[in-house]
TrEMBL record:
GO terms for cellular component: cytosol. Residues 53-189 form the Glutamine amidotransferase domain. This is Glutamine amidotransferase. SUPFAM superfamilies: Class I glutamine amidotransferase-like. It comes from Gemmobacter aquaticus. Keywords: Glutamine amidotransferase.
Length: 240
């Protein structure tokens, strides 16, 4: 199992949240938007946060403006033609080159892989929805999933950290510089339920949503992954 040794000083690291999507308007008043979900997930991990709405072309001036970066999920495909995607890929490559730690979740996982030479596609096997088990290098974690796109070819620089039968590149680590996860540790089960009732209609097969709905009472290991994310941000790493 890959372990991250936390040695960062006691003051809170400033994590820049690169927001690439939004929660549905009907769910946001209860769930909060994506940055709110990550701040809630990582609330007890000794981190502070600043959000940049990169989907609206609000980018940091420098990859050094924050101590680390977190790329959110999005309803967009990494391979689609959106104005924010090319500059985001440039930002990812620069952060990687300068060893500024970065975490990517779902779309964030995919756009990092694409920016660094991997391939992202709409998966022929369909959707993964709701509580799903992943093998994290011998440790089983159950996390909420909501995706059809996948990293179908990982970059050469990436090592597979987690997988299951449906998703072979479910978590990737790029040395000590980037850590990405396909699942959504920030999504609570009630938010998945809301997605199924809003965005899922007409997209996700009814039988799959029914199966996922029957699992929503299962516990999820969101805090186990929150600790992994925080430990990664705070880990000792080689300067560029």
């Amino acid at each position: 199992m890959l372990d991250f040794i936390c040695i960062y000083p006691g003051y809170p690291m400033l994590i820049g949240i690169l927001q690439t999507g939004e929660a549905p308007d009907v769910l946001a008043p209860t769930s909060g938007d994506y940055p709110d979900m990550f701040e809630r997930l990582l609330a007890d991990q000794g981190l502070s946060f600043r959000t940049y709405r990169v989907l609206d072309m609000e980018f940091p001036e420098s990859v050094n403006d924050c101590d680390g970066w977190l790329i959110t999920g999005s309803r967009f495909g990494a391979y689609e033609d959106h104005a924010f995607i090319p500059p985001l890929e440039d930002f990812i490559r620069e952060a990687y080159a300068k060893a500024v730690p970065m975490v990517g979740i779902c779309f964030g996982h995919q756009i990092v892989a694409q920016a660094l030479g991997g391939k992202v596609e709409r998966y022929s096997g369909g959707w993964s929805v709701g509580p799903t088990e992943y093998d994290f290098d011998g440790e089983t974690l159950r996390l909420n999933a909501w995706h059809r796109d996948q990293v179908t070819r990982k970059p050469d620089a990436a090592e597979v950290l987690a997988c299951n039968d449906f998703c072979e590149n479910a978590a990737l680590v790029y040395g000590d510089r980037i850590f990405t996860v396909q699942a959504h540790p920030e999504f609570r089960s009630e938010f998945i339920d809301g997605l199924m009732k809003t965005r899922g209609k007409g997209l996700v097969p009814d039988t799959l949503m029914a199966e996922a709905g029957a699992r929503l009472d299962q516990s999820i290991d969101d805090q186990a992954l929150a600790r992994r994310i925080a430990d990664f941000f705070k880990a000792s790493r080689t300067a560029a």
